[in-house]
Amino acid sequence: MNVIVIGGGFAGLSASTALAEQGCHVTLLEGRQILGGRAYSFVDPKTGDSVDNGQHLFMGCYRETLKFLHRIGSVGGLEFQSSLSIRFVGSGNHRAVLRCLPLPPPWHLYSGLLRLKTLSWGDRWRLRYVQQELQKNTPADELDQLTVDEWLTRCRQSERAKRHLWDLITIACLNEEPRIASAATFVAVLKQAFFEDEASSRLAFASVGLSDLYVSQAVGYVQKMGGDIRAKCPVQRLEIREGRVEGVVLRDGTRLEADAVISTVPPWALLKLVPEALVEKDVYFRQLKMLAYAPIISIHLWFDRAITDVLFAGLLDTHIQWLFNRSRIHHDAKTKKGYVSLVISGAHDFVGWSDKKILSMALEELRRLFPKAQEAALLRSLVIKEAQATLSPKVGTEALRPEWTSPVKNLWVGGDWTRTGLPATIESACVSGHGCAELVMAQSRDSSREVAYA
Fold it and tell me: Based on CB atoms within 10 Å of each CB, which residue in 214, 252, 344, 363 is the most buried?
């Protein structure tokens, strides 16, 4: 089969490599000069350090992501914890650690939560209600009518437990405030990451820049299998005739034919590729206009010395939610010792701020929580705003997320924002990429059987 894949992020590259592995001829089209979608890195011209456009965590439950990285020979670029461990830092030298023991689920999680000092003994006792609620297996469409905050209230979680534990988990996993985010994907994450097996909950970091982790390796894999990767090759529109996609038309007017097309671009980009009449006619495409998005702000700071030896930490009672010690995470000897990055997820209230104002707030909070930062000189700063970083999993969003099979024959739609049952993460992107590839192959097998029968 001759398959065109539009978009060169995790979804597009996982789909392309999976199809190439099955013997398809793949042509991947990326409009930008670089591949990586919304998960890429670049070299900072002033420091020479590799900078991710946003900090990404991986988990042991990221099975499709790990399958993709194994396929292209890049899984060695991830470093996993031996067991789940998260540090929390608050004002007044307030420190706590969630450190889980290697026990069967859910006891491994309870072994950490029951020793977490940010929770009162009453909060720790009430954690059992979370498991009880999870065991009910409430349908996803019912959970999609509740916010995470409402679901946690149903689980009898106190405001302190929400603020010092669940809110941080929600923000990290869903990129949205718990009073906005739907409980549907939150519950899915809890089940998959924390209640399946001990290994699923382990966190991992890329020891190199995000692009260095997977882009060139995936490109090389597709090319080795006879495929074609084209950057700076924007698609103008899909070529659709009588309800069937026959190929694409590039911005320069070139027409490329294909037996199947997989689009992995964001919703707003996909809508520009589809004829306007079809968008208005078909609810599948029309609903994409109703999706909302959540911003992420990453603040990269280079100090003249190390300000902490912590690898990463959740920050308590601050606007900044997470700190990542990039000097320790990256193994590149060139990486400066005082390089840290800070993250504000679900940053609706701050994305309109100036970089200067964001930096001022970040430094005030950082110096309040990490005394060494008060003495360190700031050498360089970089604020990166991703206004539409991820799908906002608002209440009711699950019903709007599209299936991979579109109403246009031979057109499949992938991306972290499609109906994967997961929040818009790297794993969701790879789930969709592999899912679309399997649907293409299934149709190919069916067609072959029909020909053989005829």
Answer: 214
Quote the CA–CA distance of 409 and 397 in Å, as a whole number: 25
Give me the residue label for tokens 């193994």.
331
Looking at residue 240, its amino acid is: I
Look-up of token digits 């670029």: 77
Cross-strand partners of 322:
314, 343
Reply yes or no on whether the pLDDT at 303 is more than 90.
yes
- 77 vs 67: CA distance, rounded Å: 14
CB-based contact 313:89 (threshold 8 Å): yes
Non-local (6+) Cβ contacts of 114 within 8 A are 124, 127
If you search the block for the tokens 């699923």, which residue do you land on? 200
* Burial grade of 445 (CB within 10 A; 0-12, 13-18, 19 or more): exposed
For residue 41, give Cα distances in angstroms to 138, 214, 253.
39, 11, 31
Contacts of 235 (CB under 8 A, 6+ apart): 6, 29, 31, 248, 249, 250, 251, 273
Q: What is the DSSP string of 319-363?
A: S--EEE-HHHH---TTS-TEEEEEEEES-TTTTTS-HHHHHHHHH
Burial class (CB in 10 A: 0-12, 13-18, 19+), 129: middle
Q: Are 147 and 178 in contact (CB under 8 A)?
A: yes
Contacts of 115 (CB under 8 A, 6+ apart): 99
Whole-number Å distance between alpha carbons of 205 and 384:
20
Please give the Cα distance from 90 to 370 (Å, whole number).
9
Per-residue pLDDT reduced to its tens digit, 197-216: 889 999 999 999 999 999 99
Cα 154 from chain centre: 27
pLDDT value for 198: 87
What is the C-alpha separation between 186 and 392, in angstroms, rounded? 12
Buried (b) or exposed (e) across 281-309, using 16+ Cβ within 10 A? Answer: eeebbeebeebebbbbbbbbbbbeebbbe
301: helix, coil or strand? strand
What is the arithmetic mean of pLDDT over 266-270? Answer: 97
Q: Of 415, 448, 441, nearest to 19 (Cα)? A: 441
Secondary structure class of 199 (helix, strand, coil): helix
**Do 286 and 279 meet the contact criterion of CB atoms below 8 Å apart?**
yes
Token pair in block for residue 268: 């707003």
| CB < 8 Å & 24+ apart, contacts of 217-224 | 217/72, 217/73, 217/74, 218/13, 218/14, 218/16, 218/17, 218/35, 218/68, 218/72, 219/13, 219/35, 220/72, 221/17, 221/20, 221/71, 221/72, 221/73, 222/13, 222/16, 222/17, 222/20, 222/26, 222/28
